[in-house]
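Re: the pair you flagged

First of the two:
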Amino acid sequence: MQGLLDHVSRTPQLWNMLRWLVEAGFRGEHRVIAQELRPFADQQRRFLDFGCGTGQFAADFPPDRYVGMDLTRPYVQYAGAHRQGSYSVMDGSALGLSDQSFDAALVLGVIHHLPDTLVRASVVELHRVLKLGATLLVIEDVPPPSIWNVPGHLMHWLDRGDHIRTDADYRALFAPHFEVQRSYHMRSGVCDYGVYLLARQS
């Protein structure tokens, strides 16, 4: 089974289809991005999609003010060929981006793939490239709160991310560079997420 998942994850079209089915068309994620970041509310703000993968959420942002980065080259190549916006292959712990050059950033389903040391390094980099007072929206996998969400538990068992954390663990990784202004639970298809709206600290 793991071999099959590895094959699917290396094929952007298959990976997109699997995620779209499991997460009910990403309706929950689209709603949260629109509600919390309001990307089309003005014509000045620049947005960073940290760990953009195949650019699944690029259309939620103005293409001329959207930058997607990911470490996986095939995903970035797919995104560049099929989505609007600007894309780069980058290591999240050493971003090739200017200081304080973004007004907001999205981190969606990335942190649970990284050990604590890499998360902390990435948080430092996000702090560096975001402007003072900028908004960081983190949407991360959390353990399903209901034992009856059997498909959700199965997805976590199959998930290639080995670092699904508790709410307290996520909050500890954000500090001291970001302050959690608001957080809540969200269900997207069978997947349970913690949503964190954070503000960059000085």
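Second of the two:
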Amino acid sequence: MQINPVRVRAGLYAVMLSFTLALSACGGGGSSSNESASPAPTPAVAQGGKLVGSVARDGVAGTWGYTAPDGNRYAIMGTAKGVLVLDLRDPAQPRVVDEVDGPTDTRHPGIYWREMRVYGSHAYIVSEHSNVRGGIMILDLSGLPNAVRYVKSVTPHDGELAAHTVDIDTARGLLYLQRETDLAAPTGATPTESAPTAKVSAGASDMRRTLSAAAKPSHPVGDVGHGSVEIWDIKTDPENPRYLNTFNQGRSIHDMTAVGDYCYVAEGNESSFSIWDVKDPQAPKMVVRWQVGAGHFAHNIWPSGDGRIVVTTEELPNGLPARVWRLNGNAQPTPLSSFQLGDATPHNVIMEGDLAYLSHYTAGAAVFDLKDPAAPKQLLQVDTNPNSGPGLIGCWGVYKFPGQPWMICSDINEGFKLIQIGSP
């Protein structure tokens, strides 16, 4: 069986770029801000791109983009304070529209894990933190460029607020949520707006997963044998997600990429990746699962535009390269190649057509051409921070505006950066 999803529009530019973003904490939840952008520093660009604008922040994590119906572009990024929303209409001077408060009870000083995705005119943000506004934060972006509206935060179905990653199949309006727990909440439970101290009452069979906040691990990715993925309907009512199902119970889950009828899962501490047929969200079926090196942390996975290959990253041990695999239906994928920038550690990868965009920690951000997946070709690197080596610091996330010569990137300590692709 050949898997044939299409996640993003394919028509791209011959030369691509990479970047990272810089930020420093300030702003207020719910109100607009006219904070000025900092001057864009000059990065080390390998080829094919130019750093255009930046905004300074610290404690930065994930980033994503939003293109409004009128074609204007906006950036969304996790910061120490919460969620930063930037107006990119003037690329050289990104404007802070708002910095919406989010949960902040980090157990790793200086690091505030947050990941986000966009569906229609709404952004959905998750974090590892569980105090104020913990759970799935929903932001209404329809008021841009003037304002952002915090809608509410929804408690995941298993009752635990912390979540490490989220992904959305925008074609079908399905949200996929990483969980540390094995089981769904008791039958009949309904999602509500989260409270700072929300907890779940578990039965005896799930008591091992019910820990006090103080006893919970600082990085809520399930250990071996524990974890799952929740599916939520956001198409019916984007401001009131409806829980549908939980699948892949009993596996450590770190990240998912949802494309139409398929969900690609990075299984963290299990040292494995899997692909699921989710054509019927109520009855997901595993297509294939494959192992990587023992002790390797399966971090993230993304398919090419034609669905023939996937690129994976393994964050631990530090310094492992990204890998390219040819998919063979329900047979084991074929390893084709691997790539990285020096000895730096690839973090997250996204794809548009045959092009792979990577956040690459100390090496900044990069773009690789995988038209020949057995021979990856580096197109661009933007080194966004002064660090070097395989350590887990530097460029956290990247986002490429589909079909447009613009890319954004978030750097943990340096902040937000906007890059124009194909510029001299």
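Confidence is low (pLDDT under 50) at residues 1-47, 188-192, 194-217.

-B.
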